[in-house]
Amino acid sequence: MYSIKLGLIGLGKWGKNWERVIKELGIVVKTCDLKEKADCKDYKEILSDNSIKAVIIATEPETHYGIALNALLHGKDVLVEKPMAVSVVEAEDLIKISGEMKTILMVGHILHYHSEAERIKREIKKLKPMKIICRNAKNEPERKDNPIWALGPHLISFALSVGINDIECDFSFEKEKKNEMEIIGETGNLIVDWNSLKSKEEPLKTELKHFMDCVLNRKKPVTDGYDGLNTVKWLANIHMNTG
Description:
Blueprint lengths: L4 E5 L3 H12 L4 E4 L10 H5 L4 E6 L3 H13 L3 E5 L6 H14 L3 E4 L8 H10 L2 E11 L7 H5 L1 H9 L5 E6 L1 E12 L3 E5 L9 H15 L7 H18 L1
Parallel strand pairs: 1-2, 1-3, 3-4, 4-5, 6-7
Antiparallel strand pairs: 6-8, 8-9
């Protein structure tokens, strides 16, 4: 179905999901991971492979910028998982380099690829939204990473896409599982519970198809570098204000 060969960097829990949908779509892929069984351990081997035109980066957030930067400088189209970087400066630099190299830069904000996403956006806009409360929680108290950066990107990106600037956040690893948005509008309120919404197609697969379409036809991604940058700006601000 697709003539392009992909590189997949990172085979952790989410990276394995990427590997699965890539293979389900019949896409040729070369994988890389330091610990898990993969085709190589050094991601630079993927970047130096001229048969690979695009890469998906699903490593730890702190590594996203360095790997994505190297990939862009090698002329690869890039889909980097959320958050695209852990600082505004890094995110801005990736956009700059992508522009200079004329490469695709896409960020893995998966809610936009849910089959109900466009309908929900229309419903929110009808309410003339004034404020949104984003709640994302998992009962995983053993985790050491910051819940703002781990749980915040998807909901923040979606909220920004419908023009909401007044955003209240509640992200935690010590609460009952939750992934929802409460929209407060001039004409009414709405609660969107993403955990209970069924998608016609697995959103990750839809996201991958979109990335491949962008790569093959040189299209601007729905969740492009600027979407990633705006999300990082909000996350950095929330992090700063919550200490």
